[in-house]
Amino acid sequence: MVRLLDESGAPAPGAELPPPDDLLDGYRRLVLARRFNEQASALARQGRLAVYPSSRGQEACQVVGARVLAARDWLFPTYRDSAAVAARGVDPVETLTLMHGDRHCGYDPGLHRVAPQATPLATHLLHAVGVGQAARMRGEDTVVLALCGDGATSEGDFHEACNFAAVFAAPVVFLVQNNKYAISVPMDRQCVAPSLAAKAVGYGMPGVLVDGNDLAALETVLGAAVRRARDGGGPTLVEADTYRLDPHTNADDPGRYRSAEEVETWLARDPLARLRNRLRGTGRLADADEERVHAEAERMATRLRAGFAETVPADPEDLFAHVYAVPTTQLIEQRALLRAELTAEEAS
Ligand SMILES: Cc1ncc(C[n+]2csc(CCOP(=O)(O)OP(=O)(O)O)c2C)c(N)n1
User: Fold this and answer.
1) Which of the listed residues 117, 121, 190 should we mutate to test ligand 1's pocket, taking the one with most ligand atoms within 8 A of CB?
2) Rounded CA gap, 109 and 250, in Å?
């Protein structure tokens, strides 16, 4: 496993770290992502968001895409990757529009080069490969970073995306955030290969296992994979060893499938504390820097609270409005049933 900074923030022997200014920017992004996760989780608890799948603990994986991708590249995120979307420069309120329960993703994917967050597991990996391959056929040097979880690697779509990308040398980097659980399903019920990165051998592409809580290692590994894809070298499968500290979503009770001790173990590997220790220890992160970063994070959190302070009444019939251009007979029947029930309820 590639690791450049150990859990205390000390460099591994012989480690070539990214330049200090890059680490400092990485730390700023980690603090923003952590605050984003905390604020979004609080909004979900208050009923201001319909749901929030938090990436607390996985922030290093979330923010590194923003540092390794160029403006012309594409990010393909899942429902877990709101912090990655925000890190890419999408307005935080627009980012959470989908989690608020709206029918659209809240931002312009073409403008930001960020696909809508995918809820169906792994389907977006095929879209990512298609976008990468199309860009290549047009002679562009665009790279696509496609995110997914460990559970998604058991889907047929994951296999098809990896195989197609490898055969056609599509400019795609697959980043699997192995956070150890697919809701309640642990890794040993998901896969018995030596690692998820090892699956790359079967597709004929490089596979790299990296410490997903070590921003320096992630930046180095993903940076190299992006350069390789841009230079026509084809895809790379990167597995990031990380952990979801929060429940799967606000509707999950993780106490039913994992121990408090296990969570404690991973709290000690926190990606923020590790990088902070390194930066403080080398004198690169002064008190004033910390204050500035935390003030920026608070401004972002205030903006999120303001953005979701109002509850806009929803029309229940909207459920049927954007499914098909021409609604099916079943949908028309269901809409009539709902209308009748709501009218009867109002009358009683
Ligand atoms: C095709 C499909 N099957 C099932 C689900 C239901 N589902 C939602 S999240 C989830 C677990 C996914 O785990 P993983 O890929 O490890 O990602 P994580 O949530 O841990 O980030 C499942 C099975 C789904 N969204 N899509």
Assistant:
1) 121
2) 26
Query: How many A from CA of 13 to the centre of ligand 1?
Result: 38
- Ligand 1 atom at minimum distance from 183 CA: 11
Q: Which residue's alpha carbon is nearest to atom 17 within ligand 1?
A: 149
Is the pTM higher than 0.90? yes
The kind and range of the H/E element at 146 are: strand 144-149
Atom 23 (ligand 1): residue with closest C-alpha?
182
Burial (CB < 10 A; 0-12, 13-18, 19+), residue 346, is: exposed
CB 172 within 8 A of CB 203: no
Per DSSP, the three-state class of 144 is strand
H or E segment and range at residue 302: helix 287-307
Is residue 72 within 8 A of residue 336, CB to CB? The reply is no
Closest CA to 34 of 241, 291, 272: 272
> For the segment 218-267, what is each residue's pLDDT rounded down to a tens digit?
999 999 999 999 999 999 999 999 999 999 998 899 999 999 999 999 99
Residue 163 tokens, joined: 């195989």
For 307, how many CA atoms within 13 A lie in the half-sphere containing its CB?
A: 20
3-class state of residue 190 by DSSP: coil
- Would you call 244 a catalytic residue per the annotation? yes
Q: What six digits make up the tokens of 223?
A: 């940076």
Neighbouring C-beta atoms of residue 240, cutoff 10 Å: 30
Cα dist from 318 to 51, 204, 343, whole Å: 19, 46, 16
- Where does ligand 1 bind, in terms of residues with CB under 6 Å? 80, 119-121, 148-152, 179, 181-183, 244, 248
Give the nearest ligand 1 atom to 80 CA: 21
